Predict the 3D structure of the following.
Amino acid sequence: MKAKVTAEGIRAMKGGGKKIAALTAYDFPMTRLLDEAGIPLLLVGDSLGMVVLGYPDTTLVTMEEMEHHVRAAARAHPRALLGADLPFHSCETPEQAAANARRLVQAGAEFVKAEGGLAILGQVRAIVAAGIPFCGHLGMLPQRVREEGGYHVKGRSEPEHQTLLADAEALATAGAFAIVLELVTPPVAREVTRRSPIPTIGIGSGPDCDGQILVTHDLLGTFPWFTPKFVKPELNAAEQMRAAVHRWKSSVESPEAEALPGR
Ligand code: KIV
């Protein structure tokens, strides 16, 4: 049996030759399936707001909703390292950040992730001081979607480029074990990755990060109403589900037609 994945184990994958494959999971069966498929890093992302709860963005997700889904995912007892997002406005002060990180750990998370760099450094230090592994999240920050009026690529301007470098350095120094880079221009993501002592895990940030993370619903096509441009789905599960349900519905509604030879 393979050993349990730890935050230290993920950090040690930096420069090890094998890239980190990470996916989101929000419940027991998906966590178990992805774990059985050998994914080492699973995240109960606040993207659950859109792909599970039907919200327009992540800003409406609450701590209670995160705890509920973390509990469900943790019941799979994955070998993978299982983390959770600190939702919008749950990490405003160091005290609040540490208290809410503890709540997610009590629900079953083995690390927490929060959006921001230097702006939340006190919060990151408080989480790390509480003994909770921390993963950073830089670039496009979905919790700022309303403030910024959309999901915009980061790193195109020189100030954004310099901010990303400074934020990444600050997070690593504060004790983060990894950093998600979301929608960062590939050359800047490559530079952050080259300079960072901890792994970068990209999403829509080009091929040169130390790992890649996707929202599992985007990868499998179970949320067909929106797929980010950078995702190439591996499956069109929604189509297959519709077709399967349609076949079953027909068999219920006209059982004699189903019984015909060749059906
Ligand atoms: O909320 C989320 O699922 C995330 C990942 C996509 C990185 O933050």
Notes: DSSP finds twelve helices and eight strands in the chain. The two ends are 44 Å apart (CA to CA). The pocket of 3-methyl-2-oxobutanoic acid is lined by residues 24, 43, 45-47, 85, 180, 203, 213, 215 (CB under 6 Å). Residues 155 and 188 are 6 Å apart (CA to CA).
